[in-house]
Amino acid sequence: MSGKVTLQDIADALGVSRNTVSKAINNTGVLAEATRQKVLEKAIEMGYKQFSYANSISDIKNPTITRSKAAGEIALFVGSFLNNSHFASTMLDKFQHEISLLGYSLTMHRVDSNNIEALSLPLSFRPENTKAIICIEMFDHAYCEMLCTLKIPVLMIDAPVASYWKPLNADILLMDNFSSIYTVINDMSKKGITKFGFVGQVTHCRSFYERFMAFREAIYINNLSFNDAYCLSEVHPHDSNYREYLYSALKEMKEMPEMFICANDFVAVDLIDDLKKMGIECPRDIKLFGFDDSPESKIMTPSLSTSHIHSQIIGYSAANLIMSRIEQPDLNYRITYTETDLIYRESTQM
What is the pLDDT of residues 132-148, one digit of tens each? Predict the structure, then answer.
């Protein structure tokens, strides 16, 4: 090919965006390895020369080996047990794979109620060997503040609600908690549904709060009336009396909405069971929408409409955020969102 080859030339040849080509050429951002390799091979074929991170064709074809190996540990702090249905189980597989390519290992530390009350670190944690901390299901604001004083980079996967008005010295990574809820309420309102309720403990974490705010805003945008009597805003599966509270709260409702938006799939699964006990069938009598796209959402009856979280992209993004923070500790703190996908199943059928 004559003349200087540009990123746009490569993008045009492959039918992809210039941004995708840039990510592959510079080995940055979230990109499937198959796509990255396809772009690199096309760039070599077209005679592109300006690979900013590579010293040879071998480096280009194997970009992960060009980063320097740096021994150290990334400490994972968890506030509750992560079962196989939790999106973080898949996310952590991808995260661990990415950091291991760079010479880091992952250590896990359970933070119990005694640690939180005393603002103490788990006995297994060794700060002298730790290059960064990643937090999952860590929603006690005072404890998170303490972690941020250790002079070790901190990444929060979700965060305490209080971090809105008491910002943490940490990067925060979340999924898009808004788009799917906006869309499902808009779609359902066009089908004649006007009475919507929300179920979930609004103050549990930023994600639950944002899903409730998306619910409120979608009601407003669609010129519908918000009715607090349709909302059960203190429901969370980790509470000891949660199921008892959920069932009694449902029985005390004088009128049911036509559709419930649930803070996550686990709330939706229990909600369907309790509604059945009351003789209320989904989707015949009431529609339900969850969040997370857990394995249970696909096999339950009825199957659950929900918002799919891209766990592997969260894992890849988490690795990128942590590595950039280790390499550039003076960066401004960042709040990053990954996309989600709306999935319609039986629970919202008309």
Answer: 999 999 999 999 999 99
Lookup: tokens for 237:
């599966």
Instruction: Give me the residues paired with residue 220 across strands.
Output: none
The 10 Å CB-count burial string (b at 16+, else e) for 53-90 is ebeeeeebeebeeeeeeeeebbbbbbbeebeeebbbeb
Distance between CA atoms of residues 226 and 24, nearest Å: 46
Pull the structure tokens for residue 203.
């103050």
Using the structure block, give the residue that is written with the tokens 């096309």.
42
For residue 342, what are the β-bridge partners?
Answer: 307
pTM of the complete model: 0.80
109 - beta bridge partners? 77
Which is nearest to 304 in space by CA: 288, 280, 284?
288
**What's the mean pLDDT when you consider all of the chain?**
88
**In whole angstroms, what is the distance from residue 167 CA to residue 301 CA?**
41
Q: Measured between alpha carbons, how far is 44 from 102 in angstroms, rounded to an integer?
A: 25
Cβ neighbours for 332, distance < 8 A, ≥ 6 positions apart: none
Where helices occur in the chain by DSSP H, the ranges are 7-14, 18-26, 33-46, 57-61, 87-100, 113-118, 141-147, 179-190, 206-221, 242-252, 265-277, 295-299, 311-327
Interval 308-330: pLDDT, tens: 999 989 999 999 999 999 989 99
Q: Residue 29 in contact with residue 1, Cβ under 8 Å?
A: no
Q: Which residues contact 220 (CB under 8 A, 6 or more apart)?
A: 226
Whose structure tokens read 């809105």?
A: 164
Measure the CA dihedral 218/223/224/225, to 10°.
Answer: 110
* Calpha distance 121→169 (Å, rounded): 18
